Please model this.
Amino acid sequence: MKVAYLLDFYGDLLTEKQREALELYYNEDLSLGEISSDLGITRQGVRENVKRAEAILLEMEEKLGLAAKSGEISRSLGEVRRCIDIIDDKNMRIYRSDEINESIKVILRELEKLKKLNE
Model:
């Protein structure tokens, strides 16, 4: 898993310094030296914070698997959406059923709710 992705899930479990160092390193693409200047700690201190924080994030993902589960849910929701589009297209071309149209609308509303819960 990408550390930046894991940071979204488990970042609140890190100390402020660890979280900030990871965000600057992975999200802002700053060097250890640049982060050192920004945070007012040594380059070695930044490196240690980054390595310790990475280990914590990886351990949390190994134990909880939230990022992996979220990715799988996203893939499944995408597949559901793809199937809905096929049904909708076939309905529009062949059946023209108002009942199917209404069911598709309900499914799409529920799909959007699930997507928001997974964010």
